[in-house]
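Q: Structure for this?
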Amino acid sequence: MTPPPAAPGVLVAAWTIARKDLTVELRTRAAFLSAAVFTILAAAIFLYAWDPTAVAAIDLAPGVLWVIFTFAGLLGLNRSFGAELADRAIDGLLVAPISREAVFLGKALANLIFVLGVQVVAIPTVVLFYNLSLGWGAVAAIAGVAVLAAVGLVAVGTLFSAMAVNTRLAELLLPVLALPFFVPIVTAAAQATVLLVNGRPLTGALDWIRLLVAFDLVFVSACTVAYPFTIER
Amino acid sequence: MHPVPTPPLATIETRGLIRRFDRQEALRGVDLTVAPGDCLAVFGPNGAGKTTLLRVLAGLLDPSGGTASVAGITLPGGVAARAQVGLISHHTMLYPALTARENVEFAARLHGLASPRAAAESALGRLGVLDRADTPVRILSRGLQQRVSIARAFVHAPRVMLLDEPYTGLDAVGAAALSEALTDLQSSGAALMLVTHNLDEGLALATHVAVMRGGRFVRSARRDAIDPTSFASEYRAVVGAAG
């Protein structure tokens, strides 16, 4: 018999898994549509609950934006490993000659693209609803902060999605497990956004951005290493 | 002077294999050897430990005690061991939103095959479902889904094929295609291990048979050393005792 071909490297395998997940999401659109509709509805609810005479839009909008990001992201993260349970597709992944870390990174990459897609809906929605006047520089800087925050949120969310998926209360358990770990990321991201929305230069938000980068490095590394321990062996 | 023929290297081997779930032992000291080109059919009642045994050999579960190896690699053998293994289960392990071709091609990519698309088409053709290659799996019948699932397991021509009730849901054409593909794989030197309740299907493919109960092999023999009729009544007695 011929020897088996060389197994793909971690990054190639991760991209293969991410591409598969994104193809499934494009076909079903189940999670993205739910998250997009949630984003618009949540922004509308916050708008109607807002008293403009008590709090200025410029002060409220960053908080609203990050609350929406956090909960809309959870909708997609819940499905991340849930989709693998249908007819035990997860067994097909785990029996393949790829590292467990590649499975995690592939799932996280697909989730990152999903969350960034939600942000593409959320940022203009909040800007529009709260009538914020932002220059292109501020928009680009907020988008950068959003990407940095998404990396950390997705790393933590993907790990906890893997842990929660085999439990009966997965949809309840994921937010309970993940939200405490989201707090430092969302705090740094929201503080940076407040400064940028208020017209401060990017340099004024650098401390918060550095903190976000540090959280990303810690969470991505720790969650990648921890993921193999979430699999029953 | 003729060289002395050496016995073929065992492709699946376990010695005293134990697997526990908390305090319960699902496998209690399983010894087996499957040489290249052999097929071991394992029969047994529900809860005998057959599926657990396959999942340990597939690398999905670690042994709790004893030793196990596939293709000479001691388990848990990580990526190197999993590259040698194909797994067919009564779960299809497919993604319903993807087409048959996309599902098999995905598996081919994960195995690092040089031409994943060609390999996927070849595997689907072998199972007689190439004409449904671009159909989303969710709208295929259960039998066709099972054929696609089998194509997924065959795509990398594994040296060790582990089969858990592979004939479930297959019609006569699908069952014949599977038997032919398994016979070809066996002829190429792969080792097969088949877990089933169906004596006829198991005995048709097997070179060796074993009966499992309570996490142990209670009977094992070469296929050509047993009489199917007496084996069937003996098996019914074992299943009856377990129930």
